[in-house]
Each structure stands twice: as structure tokens, then as C-alpha cells.
Write a structure and sequence with these properties.
Elements: H1 2-8, H2 20-33, E1 37-51, H3 54-62, H4 70-89, E2 95-107, E3 111-126, E4 132-147, H5 151-173
Antiparallel strand pairs: 1-4, 2-3, 3-4
Length: 181
């Protein structure tokens, strides 16, 4: 997966980076085409909800993600709260954000299952006699399976490629500008 990440241009550390949406699409596409990952299923969930309370909407959205670690859930909730803050600051202006999450959900002696999520959320606050907050949310999930019994067929080729990448990385560490030896 790290080879696909490097090739894709996707930067999970900076979700707002320009071009990151296309990088994420490239990343997922590359993983799905890897011979040692098998796409088990895909699904889509949508939510359109109105409330007078952002926390209720955010919790409803976070509940659509299955099998996430508490750390991933906390990151999602944090991003949603930031988006809700933007929606509150600019009444009647829709705020939209793409969110990406990847989570290993099950590992046993036969396989490792990986959930990859892509979602889009829009939030808007309408001021009037009663303040209304609305969230429109779509989450798509792909479940990939890595079969451990097939790994020996690919291990040597992947290892050779990874050794080359490690050597390249080590060479780059010695050639940093301003590095005095």
C-alpha cells in the first residue's frame, strides 16, 4: 500500500493539500489493481438530516463509519466540527469537504481486510426565526482483502522493489541541501 501511496501523490498527512482528492482516487485505483488485493465489496450510505444542534448531526455522520479505531473517529469528528464552525460563521453558505479514511478491520491467518472510505459532507446553517442546521452526507466504502496464502508468490518481487526504495531514500538523506558531513 505504501508503494501505491508514493506513486499516487496522495498526502494523508495534509488532507487540504491541492490535488489531494485526485491523489486519493489514484491511490485507491492503484491498490484495487494490485494483484494481491481483491475487492470484496463496495457500498454507499447517505444521510440528509436537519437539526438545531451541530453535535447531533456530527454524531449521526460519524456513526455511518464502521469498524474505525477511536483515533480515526476522533479525527473525523474534529474535521466535521471545523466544517460546522465554518458553516456557522457564514450563514446560508454551504460548506463542503471531502474526507478520506483507511482502516484495517480484520487480520487473521488467512487474510487482512482493509476498509477504504471516501466521503463528502456539506453543511449549511440557516438563520431566521429558528436556526436550522443541515448536513448532507455520503460515504462510500470499499472492502479489500489481502490473502496471506498468495503472498509468497509476490513477496520477492515486492521486496526487491522496496529495497530499491530504501536505498533511494538513504541516498537522499545524504544529499540534503546544507547537510555538512
Amino acid at each position: 500500500m505504501d508503494m501505491a501511496l508514493k506513486k499516487s501523490g496522495y498526502n494523508p498527512v495534509d488532507p487540504q493539500q491541492a490535488g489531494n482528492y485526485q491523489g486519493f482516487i489514484n491511490y485507491v485505483t492503484d491498490i484495487v489493481h494490485a494483484p494481491f488485493f481483491h475487492l470484496v465489496t463496495t457500498d454507499r450510505k447517505t444521510l440528509q438530516e436537519k437539526s438545531s444542534n451541530w453535535d447531533n448531526l456530527i454524531n449521526s455522520i460519524a456513526g455511518l463509519f464502521e469498524d474505525l479505531t477511536s483515533q480515526d473517529t476522533t479525527r473525523i469528528v474534529g474535521g466535521l466540527k471545523s466544517l460546522a464552525h465554518s458553516a456557522t460563521a457564514t450563514s446560508d453558505t454551504k460548506q463542503t469537504e471531502n474526507l478520506f479514511v483507511q482502516s484495517a478491520i480484520a487480520a487473521n491467518t488467512d487474510a487482512i481486510a482493509v476498509n477504504i472510505y471516501w466521503s463528502q459532507v456539506s453543511m449549511i446553517e440557516h438563520d431566521g426565526k429558528h436556526t436550522t442546521r443541515q448536513a448532507d452526507y455520503t460515504v462510500m466504502r470499499g472492502i479489500l482483502e489481502f490473502r496471506t496464502d498468495q503472498w509468497p508468490s509476490f513477496a520477492e518481487a515486492v521486496a526487491q522493489h522496496q529495497v530499491g526504495r530504501v536505498n533511494d531514500w538513504l541516498d537522499n538523506q545524504n544529499s540534503v541541501k546544507g547537510n555538512e558531513q
